[in-house]
Amino acid sequence: MPATTHFITAPTFHRKRVFHNELFGEMLMDALMRWRQSAEVSLHDYVIMPDHIHLLVTTRTDVIAAVESLQRLFAEDLARQYGYSGEVWEPAFQDRELHDLEECSECTRKIHSNPVRVGFCNNPREYRMSSKSSRWVLDPLPERLRPLELQVV
Q: What's the CA gap between 142 and 85, in Å, rounded?
């Protein structure tokens, strides 16, 4: 299966503000890093909002199966560490396959502007639960989706 790049929006169950608790946001960031190693996924950008997440990923497998594996991984962590056995995620999520630089740039802007737009911070780098302020080194975008100045010549 060829690699495809996707913009994912995955809401929490009934839009509960699960990640308002930063401890759970940290747990999800840890799960994201483990997931990208185990699910044949490259993680390019993310933001964790109180009731949903946005991801920019490239996957070499079925995107639905990949996202469901992340959701399952986090739910298992929550159950193991806190005994929570309820629903964590809505069964459906939004997926948009990205085909060009313009689409990719638009989605990247949406990811980074989300916490600013809702008033959580003034600058995306101030929001701890995003790739803009992440302590993790993320994966580079596929060559065809990188701005010209970042493409290898």
A: 38
